[in-house]
Structure formats: structure tokens, C-alpha cells
Specification:
The structure is a single chain. The longest helix is centred in the first third of the chain and has 41 residues, at 2-42. The N and C termini lie far apart (71 Å). A three-stranded antiparallel beta sheet has the order 4-3-5, with no helix packed on it. A two-stranded antiparallel sheet has the order 1-2. The chain is mainly α and 335 residues long. It has two domains: 1-48; 57-332, no CATH class. The chain has helices at 2-42, 51-70, 76-92, 94-112, 115-121, 133-154, 167-196, 220-244, 256-279, 310-332; strands at residues 202-203, 217-218, 282-285, 290-292, 299-303. The chain is globular.
Length: 335
């Protein structure tokens, strides 16, 4: 009888907690809406954001972050970082949100997939991924900055990518998509390659066979996965554009977004491997039979120098893709 009462009590507490969170987010969204109305009365160029957009931008990232925390895809610091990144991207542009969502969901699913195989080769493998705030900001920091610049440029809302009408905003959109596609492509390659590849990875600088888990090691399966990962976030962006932007027929074609995402994912993964081969130390530790990132008496060096860690390599890769790739796309974008 007591156990039944405990279950009822826990369910009641959970229901009350959900109601409190919902009421708090409603109050917060209304507060921000009133604040935006107040600010727009002083600055005529500022357009007030609807309370529904505030609510969506707060509530949806909160729900997703709590769910990720329970599923151990994020630790507590990572959850706080993801909440901030999710709020900024969702407020700026729903296409940014869908792209981030595609990256996070697919990456979390693939991290859990083939866990037994990955545990054999990865000395730092964590169940569910357990991303912390450093990993969140190394993957989401650049998109967050771009989303803030986008809101300063055109305000919150969705626009088509059209260099002839919105040059700088279109550049920011492609930079943000490229950064997230780079992170997605690298993650897909790292998670899919070790499970599905039937051949040994090859070092991207010398093309010699290296043990699985070596920084800078690539496989044909991993490269294909990186392109598909980038194309997936590109498709998420493109579909959201179709649903949310009413005047797409007046702008440049938007379908190249999918191809752009795939190319960004592939190039980002290759750039990540190139940096990893040079600036991350990889050695084979005979005592545990795995590739490690530290030097010891039982470790044989494979490649790289201990200059950067994996998070820094991810950050540099996404920054370079975000800076360089939109310029190439601008010259080739169909009109």
C-alpha cells in the first residue's frame, strides 16, 4: 500500500514540477515580449518579437536539454551550455534551430550505436556521450556568435538565402550552416566509421594504415558518412525554409543548401583529420592495446604532436569552414 502511495506521490510531484516549469516559461516569455515592446518604443528600428516566439525559444530547448540530461547525452555543465546555444539559435531563426536539432539528435543516436565496438578502441569512451560545456561550446559557440550577429543585422525571423538582396545575412546563414555541418560530418565519420568500416583507417597525410582511433585516420565509409551527415543538417535547414518562408519564389533557388551542407560536412571532417594528424598526439599503448593521446614508457608514437586536444581541433575546423566556404558558395550559387 505504501509503495502505491509513493508512486502516486512521485507522479503528483512530477506533474506539479512540469506545471511550474510551464508557468515559469510562460511568465518569462511574456516578460521578454513586454521588454521588446518597451525597447521598440525607444528604438524605432527594432521590431518587437511575438510572445509565442519567446515561448518556443525558451520552452523547446529547455525540454530537449532536460531530456538529453536524463539520457546522459549531456552532463550538467553541458546542459546549461546547450540551453544557451539552443535559445539563441531558436530565437534568431527557426532554420537555425532545426539544423541544430538535426545535429544533436543524430549525433546522440550515433554515439550510442555500436557502443561495444567503440569501447574496444576508444580509451575515453563514455556511455551516451556525456558532452560537457567545453564540447558544447566548441561545436555550438561559432553558430551562437553568428546567430547573434544575424539578429543584429536583420532581427529574429526567417529569410531566404539570397546574396543579391541580403548579402551579409545570407553569408551568416551559410557560415552557421557550414559550422554545424562541419561538426555533424566529423561526428558521423567518427561514430559510423569504426562500426561499419571493414578496412583499417589510413592516415590522411601519408595514406599509411593506422590503428582504429588514430587522430587523422580516415576510411571511405567515414568520408561518405561525413557527407551524409552534413547533407542531413542541410536538408533540415532547407525543409524549414520551405515551411516558414513565404516568398521563396522571389529569391534565389534554395535547394543548393542541401549540397552545401554535404560539402561542408565532408570538407570539415577532412580538415579535422588533417589538423588531428599534425596537432594531436596519437600513440599505441601496448599495455592496454588502444590508441591514446599521451606519451608513456609503453606507448609507441603514431603521428602528431601534443599541441591541441580534440575539442580545440573541432573548434578550429568549424571556424575555418564558417569563414571560407560561404565565399566559395557565393560564386557558384545558382541564380
Amino acid at each position: 500500500m505504501n509503495s502505491e502511495n509513493d508512486v502516486v506521490l512521485k507522479e503528483s510531484i512530477k506533474m506539479m514540477t512540469d506545471m511550474i516549469v510551464l508557468c515559469a516559461t510562460l511568465a518569462l516569455s511574456l516578460f521578454f515580449w513586454v521588454l521588446s515592446l518597451f525597447m521598440s518604443s525607444f528604438y524605432g528600428t527594432l521590431q518587437p518579437v511575438s510572445p509565442w516566439r519567446w515561448l518556443f525559444s525558451i520552452l523547446v530547448p529547455l525540454v530537449l536539454t532536460v531530456r538529453a540530461l536524463k539520457r546522459r547525452s549531456l552532463d550538467r555543465s553541458g546542459a546549461l551550455g546547450a540551453l544557451l546555444v539552443g535559445f539563441v539559435l531558436t530565437m534568431a531563426n527557426f532554420s537555425f534551430f532545426s539544423t541544430l536539432l538535426a545535429f544533436f539528435i543524430t549525433s546522440s543516436k550515433l554515439t550510442r550505436w555500436g557502443a561495444a565496438q567503440k569501447r574496444k578502441i576508444d580509451v575515453d569512451y563514455k556511455e551516451g556521450g556525456q558532452r560537457n560545456w567545453v564540447q558544447v561550446f566548441c561545436n555550438g559557440g561559432v553558430p551562437t556568435e553568428l546567430a547573434l550577429l544575424y539578429m543584429i543585422e536583420v532581427g529574429p525571423g526567417e529569410i531566404p538565402i539570397d546574396f543579391s538582396k541580403q548579402y551579409s545575412a545570407s553569408w551568416m546563414c551559410l557560415s552557421l550552416l557550414g559550422a554545424l555541418a562541419c561538426s555533424t560530418g566529423d561526428t558521423w565519420a567518427s561514430e559510423v566509421g569504426p562500426v561499419l568500416s571493414q578496412s583499417q583507417p589510413r592516415l590522411i597525410t601519408t595514406w599509411e594504415e593506422v590503428p582504429a582511433g588514430t587522430n587523422g585516420g580516415v576510411t571511405s565509409v567515414g568520408l561518405v558518412a561525413s557527407f551524409l551527415g552534413g547533407a542531413t543538417v542541410g536538408m533540415a535547414y532547407f525543409v524549414t525554409q520551405l515551411l516558414m518562408v513565404s516568398d521563396l519564389h522571389l529569391a534565389d533557388p534554395q535547394w543548393p543548401i542541401v549540397v552545401y551542407g554535404g560539402v561542408a560536412g565532408l570538407l570539415g571532417s577532412m580538415l579535422d583529420s588533417l589538423l588531428g594528424a599534425h596537432m594531436q598526439y596519437s600513440g599505441f599503448d601496448a599495455s592496454i592495446g588502444k590508441v591514446v593521446s599521451y606519451e608513456s614508457a609503453t606507448t609507441r608514437r603514431i603521428c602528431g604532436k601534443p599541441i591541441l586536444d580534440n575539442n580545440a581541433v573541432n573548434l578550429f575546423s568549424s571556424v575555418l569552414i564558417a569563414i571560407i566556404l560561404p565565399g566559395l558558395a557565393w560564386g557558384m550559387w545558382p541564380r
